[in-house]
Amino acid sequence: MKLKTFVVNAVLAALYIAVTFLIQPFGFTNIQFRLSEIFNHMVVFNKKYFFGIIIGVFLSNLFFSPMVAYDLIFGVGQSAIALLITIISAKYIRSLWTRMALNTVVFTVSMCFIALELHLALHLPFLITWLTTAIGEFVVMAVGAPIMMAINKKIPFARMI
Amino acid sequence: MKLIIGQFVPGDSIIHRMDPRAKLITVFIFVFIVFLANNPWTYGFLLAFTVLGILVSKVPFSFIYRGLKPVLFIIIFTFILNALFTRQGDVLISAGWFQLTTAGLKQAIFISIRLLAIIVVTTLLTLTTSPIAITDGLETLLKPLKKWRFPVHEFALMMSIALRFIPTLMEETEKIMKAQMARGVDFSSGSLVKRGKAIIPLLVPLFVGAFKRAEDLAMAMEARGYRGDVGRTKFRLLKWHGRDTGLLSVLAVLTAALILMRG
User: Fold this and answer.
1) pTM recorded for the entire structure
2) On chain A, which terminus has fewer CB atoms closer than 10 Å, C or N?
C-alpha cells in the first residue's frame, strides 16, 4: 500500500469517528442513523477509500459502542461486504449516480446483518429490526449521495488518495 | 467538547496491568460463551464473573453505569419484549391481550442478564486498556493474517494515526460548526433536504483540512525514511505474564462450568 494512501485512509477514519460522535445518540441502537455512513459513498469515487471507512467503522464500534464485540463482527462485516459489492460492481457501471444508487441499495439490504446481530444478542424481532435499521440507513445514504456529489465538485475525491 | 476515547480510566489494578491480548481474547470468547447459559445456575456464573471483573478492576460503579446508560432503554425494551412474547408456563398476570407468564418472566430476566454481562465485560476492556494498547494487542493478534497478505502493520498504524487525529478533528469539527452557526446555519431543524444542505458547508472544510493533514503527515514520514514494518523496532513491548494466563484459566473454568451446568 502506498504511504499516502494509508495515511489518507487513517485520517479519513479519524474524520469518520469525529462525525459519528457528533450524532452518537442515534447511532448505536436499532435506529441506525449515523451521518458518517455517507462516507460509504467515497468508494464510488475511488476504491482505495475502502480501508479508511472500514477502520472508521471498526474504531467507532470498538470505542463507542456498548456492544463492542458483536458490532466489530457484524458491523465491520456488513460494511466490508457492502463496500466490496459496490467496488466490484463499479467495474461495470460508469455513471457515478448509478454507482451511488447501487451503493445505497446494497447498504440498505445488508442491514440484515445488523438486524441478525440484534436478533441474536437481544432477541429483537428480526424483520422489524431489519426494517427500522434499513430505513435509517436508506435515509442517510440517499440524502448523503447528493451531499457527497456536491463535495466531490469542490474536492475531487478520486484524485485525493 | 471533551472526548475520552474508549472511556479509558487509568489505574493500577491487576486488570489494568494485564496484557491487552489476554483481555481482547477474553472479551471475544466471553461474548460467545454467554450463549451457553440457559438456566439460573449458568446465568449466576455469568453474573458472578461480571461482578468479579468490576471488583478486581477497581473501576468505580459510576463509570460502569455511565457505559450502561445509553443502552438502558434497549435493556428495558428487550425485557418487555421477551416478557410479553413468551407465552409458556403458568400465567402470572392476565389482562385482555396482555399476559405475563412464568416462562416469559424467566426468559426476560435471562436475556437482560446476558445483555448486561456482555456490555459490562466489553466496557471493562475499554475502561482498563488504553486505546494505543488495544491497537498494539490487535496488531499482534492479527499477525497470522499476514500469511494471506493482509496488511496487518498498515492496519495497526492506520488505527494509531486515526486515534491520534480524532481529538484534533473533533476540535476542528466543533470550530467549523460554531463558525457556520455564527453565520446562521441551522443543523438541527428543518426538513431532511434542508439539513443535508446545511451539512455541506461543514463537511467541505473538514475534508479539505483532513486531506491537508494527511498530505503533510505522509510527506513528513517519507522525509524521515519510513519504510513500513521492515526492520522496525517497538517502543512499547507487550509482555505476557502469569496474570494473563490466570485470566484465560478463569475463562476456561467459566466455559467448563457453563457447559457442565447447562440444562
Assistant:
1) 0.80
2) N
Asked if B199's CB is within 8 angstroms of A10's CB, the reply is no
Cβ of B155 within 8 Å of Cβ of A51? The answer is yes
Return the residue in B74, B150, B152, B158 with the most chain A beta carbons within 10 A, the one to mutate for interface testing.
Answer: B158
- Cβ of B81 and A125 within 8 Å? yes
CA distance B206 to chain A (A): 8
Question: Domain boundaries in chain B?
Answer: 5-129+239-261, 143-223
The residue among B203, B212, B230, B251 with the most chain A CBs within 10 A of its CB, best to mutate, is B203
DSSP chain B: ----GGG-----SHHHHS-HHHHHHHHHHHHHHGGG--SHHHHHHHHHHHHHHHHHHT--HHHHHHHHGGGHHHHHHHHHHHHHH---S-EEEEETTEEEEHHHHHHHHHHHHHHHHHHHHHHHHHHHS-HHHHHHHHHHHHGGGGGGT--HHHHHHHHHHHHHHHHHHHHHHHHHHHHHHHTT--SSSS-HHHHHHHHHHHHHHHHHHHHHHHHHHHHHHHHTT-BTBTT---SS-----HHHHHHHHHHHHHHHHHHHH--
pLDDT of residue A26: 41
Domain of residue A66 covers 3-159
Instruction: Give the lowest-confidence range in B1-5, B109-113, B144-148, B238-242.
Output: B1-5
